[in-house]
Amino acid sequence: MGELDSFGAWLERQLRRSRVNQAELAAALNMTRAGVSAWVNNRAMPRADKLRLIEEFFGLLPGAATSLQDAERRAVDRIWYHRRAHPDGGREFGNAAAFAFEADLGTLAREATQNSLDERLDPTRPVRVRYTLHEVSGDQLRAFKGHLQWDALEPHFRAAARHRQKVGRVLAEGLRELDENDSLLLLRIDDYNAAGLTGPEYDDGRFSAVVRRQLDSHKTTGRAGGSFGLGKATLWANSRLGLVVINSTLSEPYEGHLERRMIGRLDLPWRRVDGEPFAGPAWLGEPDETPGFRRVARSWWADEETARALYLERESQDPGTSFLIVGAHDMGSEGERGRSDLADMHAKLIVALANNFWAAMTGGESTPPLLQASVAARRNGEVVIPEQRVDPSEHFPAQVRALKAYLDGVTVGKLTAVDQVALARVPLSVPPLRGTGDKAVEHQAVLLVTPADDMDQEHSKVVYMRGSRMTVMTRRPREIPLGTDPFQAILLAGYATGEDGPVVASAEAFLRASEPPEHDKWDRTEELAVAYARGALTRPKKFRADVDAALREVVGRREARANGGPSALRELLQLDTAAGARRSEGYPTVRHLEGAIEDTGAWRVHIELRIPQRDDPWLLTPVAWFDSQQGGGATITWAALTAVENCEVEGMNLRIQPGARSASFAGVTDVGSHLVSADWARLAVDIRRAKGGRI
User: Is 219 helix (H, G, I), strand (E, B) or coil?
Assistant: First the structure.
């Protein structure tokens, strides 16, 4: 936007703030209304003497009319605007979008960071995301509450907390903790090199999609991970008070400004305060004097002092947004007293960021990563845990090796060494949209396979990705031969391949349409049925089967003898290569197995192992899980493990003494941990290295 555009928008804002029309300004400057209109509409620019008169008229600092930044001499008035109740008597007792997610830090990290990644501005640099936990108490808390105009908010909090619904109970607990401990936990999420909340207050744009609307994703690129507009609700869901304050640096000017666009949004259930009913949401901002929106709170352009007082100061002018979750909590990190521990929350955020974005944080020799992420913790401004950058290679060394090899173009066709990465292409037939008359196109997805790392507890699964390397699902492949060495596999589809073009775009759109709102699988969806030509519903299943077939070609077949026992159990029993074992030393293999379902509904299995000769004991963990669509691959627990020959049971581990050449054990599953009936699913058992064991 040029200088004339910036000045016209700036002047219009000053007129609105001062409740002055163009005719009144023209009379004060001894000129015609048409002349002022020409300034506002960017058809002309005032002379220097007129600029000084404009500054005097509005009571602004000298030079404000030319700098257009921080022009106000006075502090901006702020109010809380609470939406009035519906005239038809309808009531909402919470934001329905927030109920799509648990109030969980792992979910928050996934959804909020994906939104930042989707808004990456400069493709040559990564988006930088920083999470800061900040506990405030005492005088700092009182000062912060003053800037939030807490006295005006508290009657609404107390009224909403009296409701017996879930939102009311969570709010009541948050207020109780605040009263008893005189402390409040803030969680700030900053992103840099992102677009920022651009666009108008109420019409279509990033700002209105996040601040004013529900179920509006406003994704401006087909590469975006989300498509339902649900992810932003996690910000409010992770506040016990339902309160988030925002500071955004824009990538394109609005009203002549770029920095410190601030607003607060409060999500409460329906309530009655002083006899007046309110619908739910409220906004903290400057009173709007625009006709049709009078007294509605709109965003304001804050000064640095205000941003600092609200713990929302940004460290640079790089575009992006800072979200402050007031009264942050995490159900999974709360101790016996119901309070979230800073260290536990810090650790959980690190793990969640690594689990969900290790691929986006991986770069090649000449390819920068898409994302950098870090976590820090403070208490009343003092550092408790220094900022820690998430290093993906510390958490997923084998997967990072595989992706880096692909980015650097050093993959192979067949694995012959432990540090190699094999690449196979998997076709995805993308059906045409209904009514277009187009033909199906074939997209070539990329399957990467590499041997698992010695320390990998989870392995021999396929991670499915699309978009900006967003993990959609992690799935155990079918019919992998017994004796297959542990591996890590990554399936890159759509834009995750790093490729471009109409076929890639079609594949990306098709896969996104095959995902539910949680974006956690590719399967049959209503959108596929209504948007795509006949046959679309079966394509995701066919694609998964083709991925498994391609994977079997890469890892090869090494048949293991297993006489007797149910065929399904025999085929699915997997014996993982013990991490750290030398190939010359060998590793345990299956000699015999059998299993049956008891009258109680539990699986009972008996497994006999062939044990290689070695001087150290083996320490193994048998892990049972159901392999079925209904069972979802979830781990089930053992009700009992029993040593039969040449082994000892230590908790849920098996210790096999040095020198033993065979061992056997029996196990009974816990029916209470079955997600489905044992009759409806096949049982699979992994033999894994026990934590802390030398293998």
Answer: coil
For the chain, the average pLDDT equals 83
Task: Tell me how far apart the alpha carbons of residues 349 and 355 are, in angstroms, rounded to a whole number.
Answer: 10
How high is the pLDDT of residue 598? 85
pLDDT reading at 255 higher than 90: no
Strands 239-249 and 320-328: antiparallel
Helix (H) or strand (E) holding 427: strand 422-430
Residue type, 426: V
Beta bridge partners of 470: 466
- Where helices occur in 60-181 by DSSP H, the ranges are 64-67, 105-118, 138-147, 150-161, 166-181
Sign of the Cα torsion 379, 381, 384, 390 reads positive
Is pLDDT at 102 greater than 90 in this prediction? Answer: no
3-state secondary structure 56-73: HHHCCCCCHHHHCCCCCC
Rounded distance, CA 609 to CA 607, Å? 7
Residue 587 binned pLDDT confidence (cut-offs 50, 70, 90)? low
Contact yes or no for 230/517 (Cβ under 8 A):
yes
Task: Tell me the helices (H) and strands (E) count for the chain, helix number first.
Answer: 19, 27
Q: Please name which of 143, 151, 132, 139 lies closest in space to residue 310, comparing C-alpha atoms.
A: 143
Which residues, 6 or more positions from 281, have their beta carbon under 8 angstroms from its beta carbon? Answer: 82, 83, 95, 265, 266, 267, 268
Average pLDDT over residues 399-413: 95
